[in-house]
Amino acid sequence: MASITTFLSRCAQANTLQVLRTSAVIGVCFHIAIARASFEFEQYMFPFLALASVLHISEILLSVILSRQGIAGAILQASLFWIGFSIGFLTSLLIYRLFLHRCRKFPGPLVAKFTRFYAVYLNAKDAQFYQELGRLHDRYGDYLRVGPREVSILDAAAIPIIYGPNTKCIKATWYAANGLDADEVSIGGIRDPAKYRLRRRAWDRGLSIKGKLYLPRVKAQTDILLQQLMNRAGQPMDISEWAMFYSFDVMGDVGFGNPFTNMATGREDPAIYAMHKNIWPLGMILTIPWFPLLVGAIPGAKAGLSEFYGVCTKTLEDKQKMFESDKEPTNVVAWLLKAIEEKDVSASPTHESLAGDTQGVILAGSDTTANTLSNALFLLTKHPEKQQRLRELLHAAVPEGYNAWDYTKGKNVTYIDDIINETLRLKPPIIQGLPHETPAEGIQIGDKYIPGHVNVSVPGTLIQRDSRWWKQPNGFIPERWTEKREEMGTANGPWIPFQLGMHSCAGKNLAYLTLRIALSAIVQNFEIPFAPGETGEKFDGNYLSSLMMTLRPLKLVFTPISSS
Ligand code: HEM
């Protein structure tokens, strides 16, 4: 304290240049200290900025008290310190990141090497980061530096090393957007592999195909969808919107045991509407790993999501009150509650983590399934011969019609899965490469060495359409998954819409179940052309890439088969 006081009183007397010089040296020293630190400084950005603000204000007050200068002069004096500090800090950071950083050998745009805000700019420019990333890869090659310590990789050999079951990489800081304590966040936010594995067991128990449990509920929601399509038969319908209504209602039912009522009302539930409105800025700020932590710590910053979080919390409280431990759970959240009741090691350890998991059920399962359904219907409409083939196969497998559809009969029509897989290849709903951090010793991918503590990612959207691994990469060819598998070399194609290894999608089986039922029901009952004036071009080429894919409207007409 005494030394700060002395320093400040000297500052008050010294001339401007001296203050700037001294503070710049402090800025450089500070940067060197954090660059050499063994912890991730970005995790502590909020405490650092809070401390800096407190110091700044204290400095002003001390200056006023000690040097008896006016408040304006004190603010000026204190600001000089921070200006000098920032100049020193940023200059040191710039030199380090451009010339000395462990990622310096990877090519990329100059600004990207210096700051991650470049990626925010690319994201914000036209909301199509995946296209910008594709252009950058074309220009700089397969190993592209997209941030100071971020490397985007277009190499199939990288996938098992980064994401596979035996990977030594861990989830990057990006995942810790909701907090650093693994016991207080949802499963998606856990970076520690051991803790993740434990928690994942409760999810796998609740989601591993409870076919007989969930099928009737998915089917009940699908019946509502069919009825609504029937009510609007022959009229243009925006399938991007209706697929969203459907999948949120399914996830509300299967996830909570409480369907939202989107389909019944024909309107998006207000809580989901508010959440969707805010997902875009959220996706943008997530680009900077430390930014969400900072924003999250500001009271009211997540207000846009509060309505959705409120619905989840209320539902969770109701479920907790009504929970009957002697009965087998009938929805995903009830399975998570059962783990708590049984004091299982996989149980969500705190109220906060359980609340996060409850939100996660809806967030992880709804948009992803909805986008896949809309995209599959778009592709089937664009390729009516594939639509007709699916219809014929369904009629052959279930001649009595959709009402007689059951899991076994549906599963036999493998062409549905071919369509789903091909849709997920062309349009994976999670567009951007998921960042994982390399271990301290780094990783070796062929002849490329990537040093430790680098955030690496493989962008699925790009690699799944790369002609080095996929024949006719932009064609919609469901047959490549079965009868043309050999001919098209499908087995060698990198395909990661659900991720790999321990972090792979926990809800994959539920997603297939829902998509199989929805596609069967729709295609067996309706012929689907584009609505008059709709070409699907805007829908196809202009989806927004944020946290998830955000689709443009797509107008289709559903003509009942019997009257067609
Ligand atoms: C076509 C539909 C789906 C796709 C393409 C998809 C994709 C993914 C991907 C890529 C991940 C890894 C995320 C990461 O590492 O950051 C993931 C994780 C997960 N998904 Fe899905 N998902 C789908 C449907 C579902 C459904 C229906 C549920 C049901 C609740 C679900 C629940 C989860 C959960 C719990 C995780 C684990 C979170 C984590 O470990 O980070 N997903 N999904």
What does this 3D model show about the protein?
The chain is α+β, with helices and mostly antiparallel strands and 564 residues long. It contains 23 helices and 13 strands. The protein has helices at 2-13, 16-36, 45-67, 71-100, 110-114, 117-126, 129-140, 158-163, 193-207, 211-231, 239-256, 262-265, 270-285, 291-296, 303-322, 332-341, 351-382, 384-397, 407-412, 414-426, 460-463, 508-525, 537-541; strands spanning 143-147, 150-153, 170-171, 236-238, 436-437, 443-445, 448-450, 455-457, 526-527, 544-545, 549-550, 555-557, 559-560. Strand 1 (143-147) and strand 2 (150-153) form a beta hairpin. Helix 13 packs across helix 15 (303-322). The model has no long low-confidence stretch (mean pLDDT 87). The structure holds protoporphyrin IX containing FE (HEM). Residues 187-188, 203, 207, 360-361, 364-365, 368-369, 372, 429-430, 434, 497-499, 503, 505-507, 510-511 line the site of protoporphyrin IX containing FE. Protoporphyrin IX containing FE binds at residues 187-188, 203, 207, 360-361, 364-365, 368-369, 372, 429-430, 434, 497-499, 503, 505-507, 510-511. Heme binds at residue 505.
